[in-house]
Amino acid sequence: MIATAKDEIIKDDILKEAQKLFQQFGLKKTTMEDIARSMGKGKSTLYYYYCSKEEIFDAVIVREMQEVFNLVKSNVDKEITAEKKLTSFALTKIKVLQKRANLYRIVKGEIQESVRCMKHLYTAYDLQETNLVKEILSFGLQNNEFTPAIRTELDLLPSVIVSSLRGLERDMFISDRYHNMETRLGSIITIMIRGLKK
Q1: 56 to each of 4, 32, 40, 53, how far by Cα in Å?
Q2: Are residues 86 and 183 in the same domain?
Q3: Same domain, 42 and 78
Q4: Numbers of helices and strands, H then E, in the chain
Q5: Predicted confidence band at 58 (pLDDT cuts at 50, 70, 90)?
Q6: 156 in the same domain as 71
Q7: Residue 166, domain extent
Q8: pLDDT tens digits for range 71-110
Q9: Do both 11 and 102 map to the same domain?
Q10: Cα dihedral angle (24, 117, 126, 53), rounded to 10 degrees?
Q11: What tens digit of pLDDT does each residue of 184-197 get?
C-alpha cells in the first residue's frame, strides 16, 4: 500500500482518537469499535490501516516516544556546554514525561503484563537516546570539559547513563517511588557530571 497524504491524515486521526481512549479506559477496555466510533468511521477504516488495537497502541507509544525524543534533542541542541547538554537531556526528559504521564499511569498494569511484547518498541528509542548521550560525551571530550579517561568507555558509558535514567523513570511512573523528581534529578546529574570532569 502506497501511503498518500490522505492516508497519513487518517492514520494520524486514528492515533489521536485511540490515544484519548487509551488514556481514559486503558488498552484492555478500549475496542476497535470504540476507536472507530470516536472518529465517526466504520471499523473497516481502522482495519485498512491497522491489524489490531494492539498495533494501534504500539503506534501511539512509538509516536509519543519520538515526540519526547525530538523535544529532548531540541533542548540539548540549544545548550553550549556538554555539562548543560547532559543536564538538559535528563531534566527535559523528566519534565516532558511528567506531562504525558497520564497515558502511562492508566496502562501501567497492562504494560507490566506485556513488557516482553513491548520490548521491541524501546529498542530503537534506546539506541536514539544512547547515541545522543554519546554525542554529548564526545562533545565534552572535544571541549576538554570531561576527563580523557572516559574516552575508552564511550562504547558502554552512554548506555549506562541512559539505563540509569530509564530505571528512575520506570520507578517514577510505574511504582510512584520518587516524588519531586525534577528537583532531585538536578542534584543527581551534578554529582554524575563531577565524575566525568577532569
Answers
A1: 19, 9, 17, 5
A2: yes
A3: no
A4: 10, 0
A5: confident
A6: yes
A7: 60-196
A8: 999 999 999 999 999 999 998 988 887 776 655 555 555 5
A9: no
A10: -40
A11: 777 788 888 888 88
